[in-house]
UniProtKB/TrEMBL annotation:
SUPFAM superfamilies: Homeodomain-like. This is TetR family transcriptional regulator. Residues 24-43 bind DNA. One of its GO terms (molecular function) is DNA binding. Residues 1-61 form the HTH tetR-type domain. Keywords: DNA-binding. It comes from the Bacteria. It comes from Fictibacillus aquaticus.
């Protein structure tokens, strides 16, 4: 485990018990068994560490739901698979999910708020593509309302199983929410959020396209951070593909599959899928 990963895991344990504000850098370094100097070699401040944790959680959440929407071949099960991926991600990272939900409405830090909004808009984009695929013209008038209904379902039901210790049957939950979403999509007739109103929400955070140069830099950083040979070699080949394309689409897709489930490769996998059009 790298020093950076050790710091993040130690901080996560303390944040889960005490919250962001009540946890000091000194407490984090003591818990991790490292010096303050070692901490500041990895992170400039506690806020930078918090942003790294938010990135780590939201990158995995975003990449998981994006993969499901883009790779499901069964439209009748797509909503179920989408909700399953969303709640499974919250369940897998439940300690941080609790902190994230609690703190995101309380933090006065503008950089954190901006970061949260960024991922929120990426989620909107993924959900909108799913709605368009499943319902097309049938839900044209209410599709923007549906985005917020779906996000509302995820938010509220996440609260139930994260904070109230309710019996958690993931299969039943996902089938129930898939049914509710279908009912709303097919029978709602009065929209509230119009396309024009939705666009006003997204002007602050545009969906910027990542460049090959940015991806090459990110791949280089990721290659240095991980140790697993298959993922490391796959990342190296993908980086070379960006520099000098020579691989077939099938091979590129296979390399992306090699890295998709590694927790520190999910984001670069998500970005590369978008770049290569998968």
């Amino acid at each position: 485990m790298s020093k950076k990963q050790l710091i993040m895991e130690s901080a996560l344990e303390l944040f889960a018990k005490q919250g962001f504000e009540a946890t000091s850098v000194q407490q984090i370094t003591d818990h991790a068994g490292i010096s303050k100097g070692a901490f500041y070699l990895s992170f400039k401040s506690k806020d930078e560490l918090i942003i790294a944790l938010i990135d780590h959680f939201m990158m995995q959440f975003t990449s998981d739901i994006d993969w499901v929407v883009k790779n499901s071949n069964n439209d009748t099960e797509l909503l179920y698979d989408f909700y399953n991926a969303a709640f499974a991600s919250f369940q897998k990272h439940s300690d941080f999910a609790k902190i994230f939900i609690k703190e995101q409405s309380q933090t006065p830090n503008e950089e954190l708020i901006s970061k949260m909004r960024h991922y929120d808009k990426l989620t909107d984009k993924i959900i909108l593509s799913m709605i368009d695929r499943l319902y097309g013209e049938e839900a044209r008038k209410v599709k923007y309302d549906l985005i917020y209904c779906i996000k509302g379902f995820i938010h509220v039901y996440s609260h139930l199983f994260l904070f109230f210790n309710l019996p958690f049957d993931l299969d039943s939950l996902c089938r129930s929410l898939a049914q509710k979403t279908n009912v709303l999509a097919k029978h709602s007739t009065i929209p509230f959020i119009t396309e024009e109103l939705f666009q006003t929400f997204t002007t602050e955070q545009s969906y910027e396209e990542v460049t090959a140069e940015q991806l090459i830099e990110l791949l280089g950083q990721t290659i240095e951070e991980i140790e697993e040979p298959i993922e490391k070699e796959s990342l190296t080949l993908l980086k070379q593909q960006l520099i000098e394309p020579s691989l077939s689409p099938a091979i590129v897709k296979g390399l992306l599959e090699n890295i998709r489930n590694h927790p520190h490769c999910k984001w670069v996998s998500y970005l590369l899928r978008g770049y290569f059009g998968f």
